[in-house]
Amino acid sequence: MLSVVVLISGGGSNLRALLDASQDAEFPARIVAIGADRDATGFAHAEAYGIPTFSVALSNYQNRDEWGDALVEQIQVWQPDLVVLSGFMKLLPPRAVNALAPALLNTHPAYLPEFPGAHGVRDAIEAGASQTGASVIIVDNGVDSGPILAQERIPVRVDDTEATLHERIKPVERRLLIQTILDIANGHIDLKEFATA
């Protein structure tokens, strides 16, 4: 059974999907704690499922490295097998990434390496792309540049706005994330292969 810590910044819709999946007795992963960089509204999901939460605000620290160290310390209390960034809107400092990777996953609303960064959906529309996608990656110290574990194409419709396209991408992101966690738990993906020396 994989133990998972999920980090959020907002409402946690991916988190909710993971929590729902983990209620299945056959699902081989359990969320042991939910953390955030602020008092996130997604903590309501944690409360509903009786899962402990923690918050580590950047503003309480002198610099990003100290914040990252404190965040890692909080995560490691739970000794998770996997850490999932689920709408976590802060870039982790390199020291934190190095402490957690390769067992550090994130989803991205584009078919990487196309359209990395904070505005992947908007960038796809502005580029006139006929298709985009969703990806699950291992976090590295670049911007959405880590190894890709799963991805799927999604067509861009002529009448799509950023909002409508994003709404169609989100369920695919959730499904890919849940499948990736299953694949890790079942040994179909070996994260040790992605460990850097």
From TrEMBL:
Organism: Glaciihabitans arcticus
Residues holding (6R)-10-formyltetrahydrofolate: R64, M89, K90, L91, L92, N106
Designated name of the protein: Phosphoribosylglycinamide formyltransferase
Positions annotated to bind N(1)-(5-phospho-beta-D-ribosyl)glycinamide: G12, S13, N14
GO biological process, one term: 'de novo' IMP biosynthetic process
UniProt pathway annotation: Purine metabolism; IMP biosynthesis via de novo pathway; N(2)-formyl-N(1)-(5-phospho-D-ribosyl)glycinamide from N(1)-(5-phospho-D-ribosyl)glycinamide (10-formyl THF route): step 1/1
Job description of the protein: Catalyzes the transfer of a formyl group from 10-formyltetrahydrofolate to 5-phospho-ribosyl-glycinamide (GAR), producing 5-phospho-ribosyl-N-formylglycinamide (FGAR) and tetrahydrofolate.
Gene Ontology MF, one: phosphoribosylglycinamide formyltransferase activity
Keyword Ribosomal protein attached: no
Enzyme Commission number: 2.1.2.2
Segments forming domain Formyl transferase N-terminal: 4-181
